[in-house]
């Protein structure tokens, strides 16, 4: 389904028929399809909303650059369109950055906030790597980014054991519109919310794969130590897409947290 919000058409799906809302927000260069194990599990007890971020999947991909505030406004518009006034939120990587930005801009909407494999700030020296990715996408397309991204996102053992998931995620990366990828790559390194995490009033869970190279354990620990009362769950072995590499452990951590938050 699509909804026209904030000047673009956003693709979204809803699963489940009863219970509180749980909103899922995906990683850069992925789509709602990356949440398969979580949708299957949580739609039995929650009404699950998953959506394709601006520039990704089946959502519109206008020319950027984008900002995290704009991406949070997209979500606010979608929730308003669907009449959702309260929801739990789980975002991974870029999705977690959108979640932090939203929680600070729209306090009172999130019943809880789960931040998986994400960061609240990047060091200044990280900007060069993001600029390189934009340059590659704009000059060569997305295909050259597929293998290096999969190598960062999954442990070697998991990549060898699950070619089906490599094929699925690889296809999502390859099919991400270049303007959407570049637009979000412009927004991501500008995040700088560590000092404001204490303002987030809802319960916070931080999940991270112990072998995550994209947003390492230290970044998760920094969020945890700056968000009073937050919980930290470290999954191993797992790299960046810990929801796919350790789905049972990820779901268990999220399930226990949501029950407490309720």
Polypeptide structure, described:
This protein has 262 residues and is of the alpha/beta class. The protein has one domain (2-261): Rossmann fold (3-Layer(aba) Sandwich), CATH 3.40.50.1820. Helix content is 45%, strand content 18%. It contains 11 helices and 8 strands. The protein has helices at 36-42, 68-82, 94-105, 127-140, 143-153, 156-161, 163-175, 178-187, 217-226, 242-245, 247-261, and strands at 2-5, 8-15, 21-25, 47-51, 87-92, 110-116, 204-209, 231-235. Strands 1-2-4-3-5-6-7-8 form an 8-stranded mixed beta sheet, sandwiched between helices. Helix 5 crosses helix 7. The model has no long low-confidence stretch (mean pLDDT 98).
SSE topology sketch:
Elements: E1 2-5, E2 8-15, E3 21-25, H1 36-42, E4 47-51, H2 68-82, E5 87-92, H3 94-105, E6 110-116, H4 127-140, H5 143-153, H6 156-161, H7 163-175, H8 178-187, E7 204-209, H9 217-226, E8 231-235, H10 242-245, H11 247-261
Parallel strand pairs: 3-4, 3-5, 5-6, 6-7, 7-8
Antiparallel strand pairs: 1-2, 2-4
Index terms:
8-stranded mixed β-sheet, globular
Biggest sheet overview: 8 strands, mixed
The CA-CA distance between the termini, in Å, is 29 Å
What portion of residues is helical? 40-55%
In CATH terms, what is the architecture? 3-Layer(aba) Sandwich
Pattern of helices and strands = EEEHEHEHEHHHHHEHEHH
**Percentage beta strand:** 15-25%
CATH topology: Rossmann fold
CATH superfamily: Alpha/Beta hydrolase fold, catalytic domain
Number of helices: 11
In round numbers, the mean pLDDT is 98
| Rg result | 17 Å
């Amino acid at each position: 389904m699509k909804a026209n919000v904030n000047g673009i058409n956003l693709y979204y799906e809803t699963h489940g028929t009863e219970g509180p809302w749980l909103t899922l927000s995906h990683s850069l260069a992925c789509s709602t399809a990356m949440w398969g194990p979580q949708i299957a599990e949580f739609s039995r007890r929650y009404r699950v909303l998953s959506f394709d971020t601006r520039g990704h999947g089946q959502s519109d991909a206008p020319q950027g650059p984008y900002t995290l505030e704009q991406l949070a406004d997209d979500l606010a518009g979608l929730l308003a369109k669907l009449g959702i006034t309260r929801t739990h939120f789980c975002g991974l990587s870029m999705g977690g950055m959108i979640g932090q930005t939203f929680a600070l801009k729209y306090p009172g909407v999130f019943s809880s906030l789960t931040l998986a494999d994400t960061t609240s700030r990047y060091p200044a020296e990280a900007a060069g790597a993001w600029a390189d990715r934009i340059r590659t996408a704009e000059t060569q397309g997305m295909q050259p980014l597929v293998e290096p991204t999969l190598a960062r996102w999954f442990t070697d053992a998991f990549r060898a054991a699950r070619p089906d998931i490599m094929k699925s995620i690889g296809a999502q990366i390859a099919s991400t519109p270049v303007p959407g990828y570049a637009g979000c790559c412009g927004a991501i390194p500008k995040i700088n919310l560590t000092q404001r995490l204490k303002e987030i009033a809802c319960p916070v869970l931080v999940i991270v794969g112990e072998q995550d190279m994209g947003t390492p354990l230290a970044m998760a620990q920094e969020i945890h130590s700056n968000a009073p009362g937050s919980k930290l769950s470290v999954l191993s072995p797992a790299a960046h897409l810990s929801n796919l590499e350790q789905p049972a452990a990820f779901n268990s951590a999220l399930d226990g947290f949501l029950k407490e938050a309720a």
